[in-house]
């Protein structure tokens, strides 16, 4: 089946979506853009011209464009404050919906969208593209293999100094709300564990060019007595980590270091004597399916395959709400100065 899709929100992010749709052979075959929606008609028209989208429905009213285009899918790329209304409109029309992150502007809205999707018997999934990269998939396979023994902890450092300008520099909780969900979701995915509680200290360091919350340290309690610690800053100049963070993952038999790029260093204990036991390197397995390592395009492909098969996509809202709960749990903990139980 070829799906008719409307894209809502025609700013800079929309171009990444349209490139992903054109770069994937599967998506070129399975998805046809039939409508664009934006608060500014001229912005939508300019996007249509740039990507040679002729003969489609363009407008400022989402329900009208969905109806006139006879859409099957809605791609939601609006600002978080508008997400609830946009997703609700798509589900009411009978569309499956794929949204930009975050899933919602609050946990209450996220839970409401889960109810609406269930009532409509439609999928509402989220673009959590960072879990569709080779390193994250490979580490999950290593953890599942038990080569490191039983998983005990994941630790990550995220230190960058990007000067975005614009709305991010004026946001509350900018690091936790706008970026950390990628890392939190990766920790959940790689470990296969559920978040239970968090204690977080959030602050704005001296010299920060952000208005609020450019740095945070968080300790998460995961299921099965696994710990996840996060140290992050978006105003740390001079020694950048990868955008995927730098990781140390420990098991009962060994440790994996990952730089967030192409360098892995995994060692397990082989000796049985001595003050410090002998260790030897082990290989990190390759990904089973290279189609799952193309970031944004892989998320959309996973979404389409799930619709075709009548299954649940990997980044369905029923899963992604757990990562969102980690974000809001950390924000609540930082605000109140206490450990917070996480409940999605």
Quick rundown:
By secondary structure, the chain is α/β, with parallel strands linked by helices. 37% of the residues lie in helices and 24% in strands.
Account of the protein in words:
There is one protein chain. It is globular and about 75 Å long. It has two domains: 3-126, Rossmann fold; 132-287 and 324-341, Dihydrodipicolinate Reductase, domain 2. It contains eleven helices and 15 strands. The protein has a nine-stranded mixed β-sheet with strand order 14-13-12-11-7-10-9-8-15. Helix 7 packs parallel to helix 9. Helix 3 (41-50) links the parallel strand 2 (31-37) and strand 3. It starts with a strand and ends with a strand. It is an alpha/beta fold. 37% of the residues lie in helices and 24% in strands. It has helices spanning 12-23, 25-30, 41-50, 62-69, 80-93, 107-120, 134-145, 174-178, 180-191, 296-309, 317-336; strands at 3-8, 31-37, 57-59, 73-76, 96-99, 124-126, 151-159, 195-203, 215-222, 226-233, 246-251, 254-258, 264-269, 279-282, 340-341.
